[in-house]
Amino acid sequence: MLKANQLTMRYFRKTGRANHFFAVKGANLELHPGEVAVLTGRSGSGKTTLLHMLAGLLTPTEGKVWLDDADLYALPDAALSRLRNQKIGVIPQGRSAVDALTVLENVLLPRQLRGEAGDRGAALRWLDALGIADLADARPAELSGGELRRMAIARALAADTEVILADEPTGDLDDENTERALMLLKSAAVKRRKAVLLVTHDREALPYGTRLYRMENGTLNEE
Ligand SMILES: Nc1ncnc2c1ncn2[C@@H]1O[C@H](COP(=O)(O)OP(=O)(O)O)[C@@H](O)[C@H]1O
Ligand SMILES: [Mg+2]
Questions:
Q1: Can you give the pLDDT at residue 124?
Q2: Of 46, 61, 89, 135, which one is least surrounded by beta carbons within 10 A?
Q3: Ligand 1 atom 14: residue of nearest CA
Q4: Could you tell me which CATH number the domain at 2-222 has?
Q5: What is the pTM of this model?
């Protein structure tokens, strides 16, 4: 289980009389296996900042993140990287492909970084489930934004981590692919007991959630 306690990110930027502002302020959240937590909120409300802190990618200024028994930011860097690789899959908001690798190799990468043999058959099945199996041997530079997004989703699903953190994963997808991607993330939670966080400003994603959170100006509330 992933748990955030009073998670806070304070950035230094002049705002009114203060010289800092809170991108995320005192967020408490739990992600359980088998659940999809949907997080909505306006652009700039702090969703990505929260996701990065949950992912072990951004050290909070205050508060803690626990993954099972591990206090993430109390770990030495090498141990944190190892744990991230093993347990946390991220579908980032921006571009995340390794350009020198093919699409299939990108999908295989997380498990190879853990020292596991790449399962090409499984990776191809994820690409197929997302409708891009025909692009397996293409390079990321040849793909459209939506195809790259689907590759990142396939990569996170193939990584087979206990936590999946998805930052607006359907942002560049059409309706059909949005539904397909959301179904796959939901079934990863329900059938394979993953703990999924789905950040979105898409109302469409709401029915896929088992818990609903909303971020407003850095403050997280469960709805
Ligand atoms: N590295 C940074 N330094 C200063 N401010 C930042 C940084 N990253 C994000 N912010 C600010 O934090 C706020 C929340 O950003 P973000 O988490 O990306 O929001 P969202 O994902 O909800 O659109 C925004 O006002 C943004 O400008
Ligand atoms: Mg964002």
A1: 97
A2: 61
A3: 46
A4: 3.40.50.300
A5: 0.96
